[in-house]
Write a structure and sequence with these properties.
By secondary structure, this protein is α+β, with helices and mostly antiparallel strands. The protein has one helix and nine strands.
Length: about 130
């Protein structure tokens, strides 16, 4: 009976050591970075948002709204970044070509504007 427990203990110990050694050498995925920017205009006063781009990235306008109904022009995200300056409507994307500062402001009419954009930086290549 004692031999059976000793063999079982040795097998369990071997499995634990194998699992620990295998985990120590596991490759970790290199994830990219996502930065959210939110800007507002309140009674004509702009409150921009800024973020640092560490390299080439993708900008996406997630949302742009106005308190004024059916405002013209349609609310949009105004972005200034390395390689891109312009307005993006909700859902549109643009590319950042290099490292630098990304600035988001809201474009449109109304007493209150709110816009949100996302800066997606891909993982570093090995």
């Amino acid at each position: 009976m004692r031999t059976r427990y000793a063999v079982l203990f040795v097998v369990l110990l071997a499995v634990a050591v194998f699992a620990t050694v295998n985990r120590a050498h596991a490759q970790r995925s290199h994830l990219g970075k996502v930065t959210s920017l939110q800007a507002t205009v309140d009674d004509g006063v702009s409150h921009p948002a800024t973020a640092a781009a560490t390299g080439p990235a993708t900008l996406t306008c997630l949302n742009a709204t106005s308190e004024a109904q059916n405002s013209k022009p349609v609310p949009s995200c105004h972005l200034v970044a390395p390689g891109f300056t312009g307005n993006l409507l909700k859902g549109q994307t643009a590319n950042v070509t290099a490292a630098g500062t990304v600035t988001l402001t809201c474009n449109g009419q109304g007493p209150m504007l709110r816009c949100t954009a996302r800066l997606d930086t891909p993982p570093l290549a090995k």
